[in-house]
User: Fold these one by one.
Assistant:
Number 1:
Amino acid sequence: MKALIIGAGIGGMSAAAALKQQGIECDIFEAVKEIKPVGAALSIWSNGVKCMTHLGMGHIMDALGGPMHNLAYQDGFTGSVMTQFSLAPLVEAVGERPCPVSRADLQSQMIDHWGREKIQFGKRIEKVKQNETGVTAYFTDGSQASGDFMIAADGTHSAVRSHVLGYQTERRYAGYVNWNGLVDVDENIAPGDQWTTFVGEGKRVSIMPIANNRFYFFFDVPLPKGLEEDRSTVISDLKGYFKDWAEPVQILIDAIDAQATNRIEIHDIEPFDTFVKDNIALLGDAAHSTTPDIGQGGCSALEDAVVLGQCFAEARLITNTDIKNVLKSYEKKRHFRAKDLVLKARKRCDVTHGKDMQETQAWYDELRAEKGENIIAGLSNTILGGPLA
């Protein structure tokens, strides 16, 4: 039995690992000739770390995960601490630590774990066709490949999604721009073992520790879509948006390498319930493109892969119809959870970024009274909703 995996990102590589565990041959096709991940890093929360371990890649998280032991919110203007607490109770409650990681390093090590030479790069999918015996992918270079089924993990701009859904989806602008990158750890910016977030005016500056003594940083600013800004203006743009903010924020801006900083207009896609059409299944951002506001985008792709593997493990495959039933089982088990995470992220996005400033101010007031229990309870609830709780 052969699966065609479209995309060698986190979703595609985790799907391949899950299917390999079930003895299924996988051919992996990646559109770009050279992997250049969008975004400097990402937070893999405990549910995602559990998935990586389940898929045989826990050692990657051990190597890449930063020492994020505490969490704090600080006032963006004064720098005063609004709330600060240990994440140890979270780890105890869910049975695993969270791991902020370099996105490039994570994807690279997942590819190396599979075997870089086994992946076909420069294969951008153009169309797909299905029949009773399987599925064929047609690529823009004129080549094609056939298999028993396809897992389309080709991202938020998925070329396969419209074939599965029967219509083109529209990306929804979430209302803010995100700048992100990496800098060396500097305790004048934030403690090296803490996720620190400065908030104010619906804006956010966040710093997470990752491996090799580095901080992952991101700046969020509510802005109209389509402003003409680029790497040449990163420093001046951020100094303008955060002119009167606290000294650690200014130190961070001065430490940034503008040429290595990403600027992204944040979008999501209205959740849909259909992940599968016959022998093709969507996975990861192709199935549930979300904003990064609860840190569950990568985790949700990993969960997809685990559930996909579980569905094949539970089945006794004999015919092509059996594959379709397995993929439908995957869809049934994943679409409610995936939709919930997208909508939770959207709700958090609106509060964090000042869609209603009265509501955002109320959240700031709540943070000043927070002892950690409520935030940890919310994180635990999200994490324990995964397939490996």
Number 2:
Amino acid sequence: MAAVSTLWLNAKVTIVDRTGTRVRAGSLEAATAKLADYPHQSAPLLALAESHASDPGFSPGAWQLAQGQLAPASGGEVPDYWLEYSDFHIADADGQPLSTVTMDNLSTIGQNMATRSGHEIEIQTQLPGVRTHRYVPAVALDAAPSKLSVHSTGAAPLTGAMKPPAPASAATVSHPPASAAQAFATRTQSRREALRPAHTGWRGALNSSLGLRLAPGAGERRVRALNATVQQGLPGHRTAVVVNIKGGASKTTATYLLSATLGRVRGGMVLAWDNNENAGNLGDRAFPAAHSNTALDLLEHIEDFTTPEHADQLTGYVRPQGENKFHVLASQNEAGTKEVIDATAFRRMHAALRQFYQLAIVDTGNASTAPTWQAAVDVADVLVVAISNKEDAARRAFTTIDALRNEGYAEKLANGVAIITQPRTASTQRLVEIQNSLAGLVRSVVVVPYDRTLDDGGEIIWEALAPRTRQAYLQATAAVLEGM
């Protein structure tokens, strides 16, 4: 068995009560000791601060403090306190500090440590809601990608219900670049981006108004890193396919917003394709066009697009999405029991459209037995499992996963991404259970917070989205690109 070195991730802890009063402590032990000294009628309930909720390095949850120890709680009540973390640092098994880190650069530091030492590095923590990480040396990644995992964890006495792994921040598998020149250019661009002064937040405001050159903060650095991932070069056309056999599981929303993020951050030719076996609603959520043509109309003329010279005629079949800078191909608009576009037709259309679009995000229907559904999964470079944090949607998501594994797509699924969308009233416990159940099944998990502007099922307006929603979809899009 390969040697594993264990390191510990610690941080300073700030306790925030219901009035907004903040008390900072040097460690988790000091924080719980302070709370133990406060008078309480019952054991206080703690939760992870909202500022950490959308970061993949954290796993939201609730904990009860009893007899000086934290233990998992259901989280159904309003917390008495929230936990905020800052000043993260890594220490060795003896408690000797090794390095200060941020949640943004933790995976880079851990991977470098593993590669240089030649054996696995496990970074554990006792901080509630902070994930632990394991990294293998880069030379072993291609041989054993299944060893990459991230584990939900909490304070030392937490029960096994919180221990199963969730792969939200798994280290990225390294592959040789398709072009050495492109790799070097990307490196130069990344260095230039890292050195560029802040242009958002209070640092950006001071730089703009006073002519300063303050460095970007952690949040802006993270956004820049995600943008760089989304903008990375690809050797050719790539397709992501969004699946869940449950209707209303946010498949169409995910398809639209992944495409919009690609269009706004990456640019180029991006297609969102509604491949519902009957009638999908991607066209209803998109900006309208001067025509009402659908995939069925395009299929009737697909022979006109077997060569690139007719690219200008595609505008008569797709629907441009303005500042989102991508096109929508709507599904046929007549529901029925008979499949209109079968597997052969889908493959013909995909072969033709890949000449015109560098990236395609394909929305699917609700029948894993439909040949067109299976054909889409077969051509997918990355699978995206859309899950709403509701009992029925979650159950059907795992039924979808079982169907994919039974059809021989377990390896493709392991390179996939799960997007969990929070409804208006979301169960914290079920969210944790969904994340834990996805362990070892997909490569990355991203949680999208509730956004009321997406509730009515109408046209999706990017500018109306909450900033946290845009940030979550930037993370999700970067995760999809990492698999390509």
